[in-house]
Sequence to fold (216 residues):
Amino acid sequence: MKSVDNTSVIVLLGNWNPFILGPHWVAKNIFERDKIEAELFVGPVTVSRFSDESVRIEPRNDKVMVRAKKTTDENLNRIETMARRLVTMLPHTPLTAYGINHAFVETSPTELLANLFHFKDRDYLPSQMPIGSYEIQRSLLAGDYDINFTISKKQESNDIRFDFNFHYKRAPRLDGDVGDILNEGVVLRHYREAKDILESKYGLKLEVSEEQTIER
Fold:
């Protein structure tokens, strides 16, 4: 089992002002750098992205995504620091919820894993319409947060993907109190939580690169 790069992301849901989150402000205040890479996609909805070698920030009207390009301890800690810096510097932005996402893929699944997608209702489906993909979704209630857990597979591939969304509900706040957002170490802690579920319950083992120390 491996981590899927570009899937470890903090999603801050709320009413964001895209005029504030421009390239110069984001570079100076969030990346704390003089220069970053800025991309602008113009269409029915204009989309901007700001990045350096390890992190990408994607602001929208209704959310801001702070994404690690590669899944390493350093990058996970960095997106947490940058997301906390963002909500601290814009404390009056109403946040409705926030989530922390991680994803993994198993390219050589066991028969036990493959059998997860042998659904009892497959004989009820039209025989002339082949199944293109499978998806199992569960929501686990973990107290302060929910774990939205998805296992998916495409018909033409043996790969099985595991997506975790650690979702924190948060009522809109206008008083500038962001102290309960992103406690220190929470991104790496949820990564380890997801890894532990897959290893202890599904018999998988995480392959760790030299850049990672997450197995410890």
Remarks:
- The mean pLDDT is 89.
